[in-house]
Design a protein that fits this description.
This protein starts with 21 loop residues before the first helix and ends with a strand. It is built from 18 helices and 36 strands.
């Protein structure tokens, strides 16, 4: 049985360094323990400073990014710029606060600017018509800014630091100077006119009809929602009220002087509460100036939680734009991200897709140290009754699941194994929540969400596992997501998720001190589950079904990434991993953007940063069929937000990995990136990692423990190692081999690791060695 990410064995202790444990701990060392002055040799290369070294003075990092000015200057270099008028949604600026969203581009066929008005909570409430029609996200409307003269040019900047669009629109009649932002579910714009220009705004409600109507007719029996109504209040506030079956959407807006404020409310099952919500949001906003003050305070504090810098200007900018994007699209407690986030556009996918999209959307928040963006975990916690209702009636007492796509409340039935149904999507989504737990070590998340929901998700599988003539447990036909053949038995997608699920439940029961009656059953499944189907080309789709035609999804490789059940630390698995990934990409034609980001992360696991960046760059290559777009968004048949966000995770996998209970610092940095800086990069075990690489060499690593978990560090350093706690005393360490140190780091303490003499302990941006144009239309 392969090791599970996050599984910890007791750390061997051969050396007690420093004073943190005191004399009682020293007296408790077993017979044969090393003396305190015995040096430790790490990986046969690096020496750890001996314990008998005199007490050192405390060390401290110098953070060159502490001041607002430093952040503003750095992020200004990552901003998106426009000197040409964007004509499509994937060319223009985008604003959001996790719920309300707006994209800015030319009104189609008109001399006007469109500011879309969409909201992540606005959806239909008729599940009988499915997620594509009955519970889909619904459009709200859009604003137009209508100049007098013909637009001749624009000069815009989307400031990441302020999360604000600013700039000018030049016309044949004069100039419009604008600024816009979204905060607390209020869109705010300030526009002034010069010359013969004037400011004219119009709000255009849009029919509450599924965006899917662009590609197909509605299902039988479907009726359109009632028409909207408009009203004006005594203070001049305009409202558009959209009745729905079992709910209401309300848009309120008013113009005062140069300012326009607009808010959207949505309620269900109430058909009146949205109206009051939208008005209350406007009253709370007060004015552009007041709202902007609160808005910038939030964003300035937000960015300070972590820092990443590397020498490729265009990719570095992309990386920071993705952090801005995910914070604009998701906040814990808010709606789980649909395929387009809060920026709904015509699309065949106006819902939440659970067989890859939702998982890829959230990975980057962990390393960036932003658990407050995790609306996926809060959605699953709040939707446990619905997840139980999604399985067939006969299994609802002990099982849960979710179908391929759903609304924001996870409302979608899942099929039965044996019918070719896609059954593993909830278990995969729970792996994301497990990552949230491992990066926070928040036992409430483990107790209240992961354990109860995963127990039921795995139970659903257990109803259908049956012994074969070989004595192994086998699974009847299920779908390996998006592989276009008759669903086989024993799909690798589901076998990987069953293994991960059972291992995680056993570990979770131990962590929670739960004596679960199902533990013997989970152990039996792990012992008897059929091996992954494999042929000469590597992992197959399932039993008797080879990977034989191009496949954009890596569903058959989930045990490699992101589950790491089969991984590079297992020497016997390396050939299988290599040929499986190579064969996946050897069959071309169906690959999409996330095929390249997935391969990049898999090669990063192997430590091959040069191959990883080669695959990642394919996503940015404009000659590929589906490249990253001008504003860093992505589209296939419609907007799909997950792929650019997963590209940021691929970069994280090059800089720092923490699967399997080991933190790996700079494990797969491309050879062309000689310098890199990480600061407060969050890892599994709830550690914050800071590290600096210069001229291709790691200069130092600082780790802070937030939870007191066992620390295993694969440092990549050579030479004489120094390992110091934050009071200057040597840390208690142990050489685990393979360049890995076990370090005793109590909760709330920090440790510094470096080779040779102490380097400058400075966190600062690195110099750009690969210049690139700004994103947008510069």
């Amino acid at each position: 049985m392969t090791s599970q990410p996050g599984t910890h064995s007791p750390l061997p202790r051969r050396v007690l360094l420093g004073t943190a444990l005191g004399g009682a701990a020293a007296a408790a060392l077993p017979a044969g323990a090393a003396h305190a002055d015995e040096p430790v040799r790490a990986a046969g290369v690096a020496d750890v400073a001996p314990a008998a070294r005199p007490r050192r003075s405390p060390w401290k990092l110098r953070d060159a990014m502490r001041a607002d000015g430093a952040w503003e200057e750095f992020l200004r270099g990552q901003d998106l710029l426009w000197s040409r008028l964007p004509t499509l949604w994937h060319e223009g600026p985008f604003l959001g606060d996790g719920q309300l969203g707006s994209m800015v581009y030319q009104e189609p066929g008109a001399n006007q600017l469109r500011f879309t008005v969409q909201h992540g909570r606005v959806q239909d409430h008729r599940p009988e018509f499915g997620s594509g029609w009955g519970t889909c996200r619904l459009p709200v409307g859009h604003l137009t800014l209508e100049p007098v003269g013909t637009i001749t040019s624009v000069d815009w900047r989307l400031s990441l630091w302020n999360a604000e669009l600013t700039g000018t629109v030049t016309t044949t009649a004069g100039t419009l100077t604008l600024s816009a932002l979204i905060h607390d579910e209020v869109f705010a714009a300030r526009v002034t006119a010069a010359g013969d220009e004037r400011v004219t705004w119009t709000f255009h409600p849009e029919e509450a009809l599924s965006p899917r109507h662009i590609s197909e007719a509605p299902p039988s029996g479907y009726t359109v929602n009632p028409p909207w109504i408009t009203r004006t209040s005594a203070d001049g506030t305009e409202q558009v009220l959209q009745p729905l079956t079992g709910g209401q959407t309300a848009t309120a807006y008013r113009r005062t002087g140069h300012d326009l404020l607009l808010s959207v409310g949505h309620s269900s099952p109430s058909d009146t509460a949205a109206e009051a919500d939208s008005l209350r949001n406007l009253r709370r906003a007060a004015s552009y100036t007041a709202l902007r003050r609160r808005h910038t305070q939030w964003w300035h504090a937000f960015y300070r939680k972590s820092f990443v810098s590397f020498p490729d200007q265009r990719l570095q900018s992309f990386h920071w734009i993705q952090l801005y994007k995910v914070a604009s699209a998701s906040r814990a407690g808010g709606p789980v991200m649909a395929t387009s986030g809060p920026w709904l556009e015509p699309t065949p996918w106006p819902a939440v897709w659970w067989n890859l999209n939702v998982q890829l959307e959230y990975w980057l928040i962990h390393g960036f140290n932003h658990p407050e963006l995790d609306s996926l975990a809060t959605t699953l916690r709040q939707s446990q009754e619905q997840l139980a209702a999604n399985v067939p009636t006969a299994y609802r007492t002990d099982s849960s699941g979710i179908g391929r796509s759903s609304d924001m409340f996870a409302n979608r039935e899942v099929g039965r194994p044996g019918t070719g149904a896609e059954t593993g999507d909830l278990t995969w989504a729970l792996h994301n929540v497990w990552l949230s737990y491992r990066h926070s070590m928040d036992k409430a998340l483990l107790r209240d969400t992961i354990y109860p929901v995963l127990r039921r998700a795995v139970n659903y599988y257990l109803h259908f596992l049956n012994p074969g003539s070989d004595g192994r447990l086998h699974l009847p036909s299920t779908l390996s997501p998006e592989y276009p053949v008759v669903p086989p038995q024993d799909t690798n997608y589901d076998l990987a998720l069953i293994r991960w699920g059972c291992q995680t439940l056993i570990e979770s029961a131990e962590l929670l001190a739960v004596d679960d009656e199902l533990i013997p059953r989970w152990q039996e499944v792990l012992a008897r589950l059929t091996p992954y189907p494999v042929d000469d080309n590597g992992f197959m789709i399932g039993a008797d079904t080879p990977y034989a035609q191009s496949h954009r999804h890596y569903s058959h490789l989930l045990m490699v990434y992101p589950l790491y059940l089969v991984n590079w630390d297992q020497p016997g698995s390396r050939d299988l991993i290599t040929k499986s990934v190579a064969h996946w990409h050897a069959l071309t034609g169906a690959h999409r953007g996330y095929s390249y980001t997935g391969a990049a992360s898999m090669y990063a696991m192997t430590g091959d940063g040069d191959t990883a960046i080669t695959y990642l760059r394919k996503f940015f290559d404009p000659t590929t069929r589906y490249p990253c777009r001008a504003n860093t968004h992505y589209t296939e048949a419609g907007p799909v937000i997950e792929t650019p966000l997963s590209a940021s995770q691929s970069l994280h996998d090059m800089f720092c990995q923490s699967w399997g209970g080991v933190i790996r610092v700079f494990p797969a940095v491309p050879s062309s990136w000689a310098d890199a800086t990480l600061h407060d990069f969050r890892t599994q075990g709830a550690f914050l990692v800071s590290a600096v690489r210069k001229a291709g060499v790691t200069r130092f690593i600082r780790i802070r423990s937030l939870a007191g978990e066992p620390l295993k560090l694969r440092h990549g350093l050579t030479g004489h190692l120094t390992v110091l706690l934050d009071d200057g005393t040597p840390a208690d360490t142990d050489d685990l081999g393979d360049g890995t140190l076990a370090i005793d780091l109590p909760r709330g303490r920090e440790v510094l690791v470096h080779a040779g003499s102490r380097p400058d302990l400075v966190i600062a941006p690195v110099a750009v060695s690969e210049p690139g144009a700004p994103w947008g239309l510069p």
